[in-house]
Design a protein that fits this description.
207 residues, alpha/beta, 52% helix, single chain, 9 helices, 12% strand, globular
Length: 207
């Protein structure tokens, strides 16, 4: 029976690195929720129109193309508006994932990668196993700055918004998490830790 493996973690933790390792090991059915959300604004037949009606504003340019910056400017200073948008986006995302899962129904394991899934009540109970990828704060900060070419203060501001991820990094507990992969060394060590974690969770997970 197909299992859904959720990979989550804060900015700069190395979620994508773990997903690449799993891909190399043969788990190729992978769904990046954060990337799919961006795509759904344009790909979904009614989502953008529904959001515009909900927020009572236009989120497209003069050519009718979705402008992400307009949405960001509208929802990030307004928690209520963000909540409204999420109430529309997340059901669409879940349906999109169900279609993806159906396409890959013969796979033993499907990866669902998301940075924010544990912070969103719409996803409570989602997935068969949840793995948190983590690293010390300073390590995550340096990685994110190097990856994005961003100013430290800008990355720190983004990281500050991930309150749950920060709490978990500081030793907090969440019963929804089945395993933690600490990514504070090199890639060889990360591969070893990922393999050990997968063996604990799925036993004979390698084909």
């Amino acid at each position: 029976m197909m299992k859904v493996l959720v990979i989550t973690g804060g900015i700069g933790s190395g979620k994508s690195a773990v997903c690449r390792i799993l891909h190399e090991a043969g788990i190729t059915a992978q769904y990046n929720a954060d990337e799919r959300v961006k795509a759904l604004y344009s790909a979904h037949p009614t989502l953008l129109k529904d959001i515009e009606e909900c927020l009572e504003c236009v989120l497209r340019n003069e050519h009718g193309t979705f402008v992400p910056a307009k949405l960001a400017a509208r929802i990030f200073p307004d928690p209520e508006a963000l909540q409204k948008v999420e109430s529309l986006v997340f059901p669409a995302l879940i349906e999109d994932f169900k279609a993806f899962a159906e396409t890959n129904k013969d796979e033993d394991i499907i990866v669902f990668e998301s940075a924010t899934i544990l912070e969103k009540p719409q996803f409570d109970g989602f997935g068969d196993k949840v793995v948190l990828v983590d690293a010390p704060y300073d390590v995550r900060l340096e990685r994110a700055c190097a990856r994005d070419g961003a100013d430290r203060s800008a990355v720190e501001a983004r990281m500050a918004n991930q309150k749950l991820m920060n709490a978990l990094s500081e030793g907090g507990h969440d019963s929804r998490i089945d395993a933690v992969i600490m990514n504070d060394s090199d890639m060889d060590e990360l591969r070893e830790r990922t393999s050990k974690t997968m063996t604990v969770l799925f036993e004979d997970w390698k084909r």
